[in-house]
Specification:
With 261 residues, the protein is of the alpha/beta class. It contains eight helices and 15 strands. A hairpin with a 2-residue loop joins strand 2 and strand 3.
């Protein structure tokens, strides 16, 4: 099935369902995850769909998703591996920032055994990550103030940006929609100021990226490679990208599975 036919099929199904997840699109069209992602980007760039965390909806429509953690089911195993590797990096760090991300949302689970316990200060803009921190850790938890985006389930606007001026984090943990030789990419323009502010307020910035996002780009570049301190991934990176990361003095950390690739 050529892309034009797939896009027509996706739009036809979307008219009936109002929203589709990436898994549903893959099942519908019978293509790979990467091809399905490219189809979504094509529809989005032509203003035919609205992108959500985990799929697409019709423009100006929204299907409420009650449990953010259910949206984390895509690449669940890989995300847990990345979070486990990232959690091991938190040693003798007094404060951390956890950015809104389905991958980062698994990190609190791996802080349970941290000896730092209540001595660790953890801030986030995600209401669900804040909840996970309260459930799974003894950390002091702070959520930034401001308006809450119903779809992203995070705090947005200028208030959290200005509030970040009051903090200096030992480590910040973020994810992204793609990375290549030119930098790190995000899907939404309104996210970029937040990402850059987190970089300014953080000593060590840790980026969690699964293999499906390597050499993938999007509309907005949030970071240059030199802005990253540690990259956590689950597969061996292309030699060219490894060379550029080395030049930028980025430490690459592989999950246990990635070490054996």
């Amino acid at each position: 099935m050529i892309q034009k036919e797939r896009l027509a099929l996706i739009l036809s199904k979307l008219e009936l369902e109002k929203a589709l997840s990436l898994k549903e699109i893959i099942a519908l069209t019978g293509v790979s995850r990467d091809t399905a992602r490219r189809d979504i980007v094509k529809l989005f760039e032509n203003d035919l769909v609205k992108r959500t965390y985990g799929g697409i909806t019709l423009p100006n429509s929204f299907r409420k998703i009650d449990n953010y953690l259910e949206r984390s089911s895509e690449l669940n195993k890989e995300k847990q591996q990345l979070a486990a590797a990232a959690g091991k990096l938190i040693q003798d760090v007094g404060s951390i920032y956890l950015d809104v991300s389905t991958t980062v949302s698994f990190i609190p689970h791996y802080l349970k055994t941290m000896q730092a316990g209540s001595e660790l200060f953890a801030a986030t803009n995600s209401i669900d990550i804040a909840d996970q921190l309260l459930r799974d850790t003894e950390c002091t938890v702070r959520i930034l103030g401001g308006n809450i985006d119903r779809e992203k389930r995070c705090v947005i606007g200028t208030r959290p940006l200005s509030e970040l001026d009051d903090y200096k984090f030992g480590m910040a943990f973020l994810s992204a929609v793609g990375i290549d030789s030119d930098g790190v990419y995000y899907a939404f323009e309104e996210d970029i100021d937040m990402k850059k502010k987190i970089r300014l307020q953080t000593e060590i910035l840790v980026l969690l990226i699964d293999a499906s996002k390597i050499n993938q780009t999007h509309k907005f570049r949030g970071y240059e490679l030199s802005d990253i301190d540690i990259l956590v991934t689950n597969k061996q990176l292309p030699d060219g990208l490894v060379s550029l990361l080395n030049q930028s003095r980025v430490t690459v950390v592989y999950t246990e599975e990635g070490e054996h690739d």
